[in-house]
Amino acid sequence: MQICNVTLHVGLGTFAPVKTEELSEHVMHEERYVVSEETATRLNTAKEEGRRVIAVGTTSARVLESVAAENDGRARAGSGRTRLFIHPPYRFRMVDGLLTNFHLPRSTLLMLVSAFAAPGETRGRDLVLAAYREAVAQRCRFFSYGDAMLIL
Asked: What is the structure's pLDDT at 88?
């Protein structure tokens, strides 16, 4: 196991609900990120060797997918800005696993998790909401300082 770091400057927009009826009309907030040469090399090596890349947090997943989307599926080192809005039926290029907490309805974070639950499909939200119902039944705590789930 290797741990790699990325830097992401998360803004308040990360937690803003989607208020448009059509997802295509939602304007994603912009966030700045930095990916080191070492991290990019490790990510690309892991993918080449068939190992999983597990993002810790939805915002980390967003950075990894942003750098992969900009470089034909491979990580690239450097700094940049992203407005990538990940929602079903998104197909992930870099991230193979996601460790995340439970998110609010209508949030871009819940939409990213829904996309991850069923990549390339639109049924992910139903799967995530079923998991949320189980979490409530098990008395898990929600939001940023609550419990978490691992999706592989």
From this structure: 94
